[in-house]
């Protein structure tokens, strides 16, 4: 179900709790909401639809993937990026890393560890920040 995007910064600054299999509806809602906003966004965290759980959705080309309880385990190549956010007006500067390794559960709750670089790494970092209550 497509949900409204939360813009309340106080809510967005709350650190999200780990997601469980009982949060599957949130995962579906997050994916639906990101797809509905794909003309202006490429990633979302569950708190952006009002649920303080560690779930992110990221558009990767023609696919949209969910990452449950994502943790960045390695990062290299820091740089400064200008980013926008569906929950905040305008753009802001953020420190990002060119290459990251992420440990997460996939939509089947199977443990994954993957390496991402460039644009996809930047999107994931932005959304993991959301899970940690960090706004750009």
UniProtKB/TrEMBL annotation:
Q: Tell me the GO molecular function terms.
A: metal ion binding; peptide deformylase activity
Provide the active-site residues from the annotation. Answer: 127
**Which reactions fall under this protein's catalytic activity?**
N-terminal N-formyl-L-methionyl-[peptide] + H2O = N-terminal L-methionyl-[peptide] + formate
Q: What is its EC number?
A: 3.5.1.88
Entry's cofactor comment: Binds 1 Fe(2+) ion.
Any Gene Ontology biological process: translation
Functionally, this protein is described as follows: Removes the formyl group from the N-terminal Met of newly synthesized proteins. Requires at least a dipeptide for an efficient rate of reaction. N-terminal L-methionine is a prerequisite for activity but the enzyme has broad specificity at other positions.
Matches recorded under NCBIfam families: PRK09218.1 (NF006670)
| Family to which this protein belongs | Belongs to the polypeptide deformylase family.
Protein name, as recorded: Peptide deformylase
- Which species does the entry assign this protein to? Pediococcus stilesii
């Amino acid at each position: 179900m497509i949900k409204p995007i939360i813009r309340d910064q106080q809510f967005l600054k709350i650190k999200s709790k780990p997601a469980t299999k009982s949060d599957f509806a949130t995962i579906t809602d997050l994916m639906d909401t990101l797809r509905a906003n794909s003309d202006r966004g490429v990633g979302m965290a569950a708190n952006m639809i009002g649920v303080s759980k560690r779930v992110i959705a990221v558009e990767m080309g023609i696919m949209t993937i969910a990452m449950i309880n994502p943790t960045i385990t390695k990062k290299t190549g820091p740089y400064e990026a200008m980013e926008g956010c569906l929950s905040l007006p305008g753009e802001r500067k953020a420190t990002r890393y060119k290459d990251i390794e992420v440990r997460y559960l996939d939509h089947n709750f199977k443990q994954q560890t993957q390496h991402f670089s460039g644009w996809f790494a930047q999107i994931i970092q932005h959304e993991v920040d959301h899970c940690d209550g960090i706004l750009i």
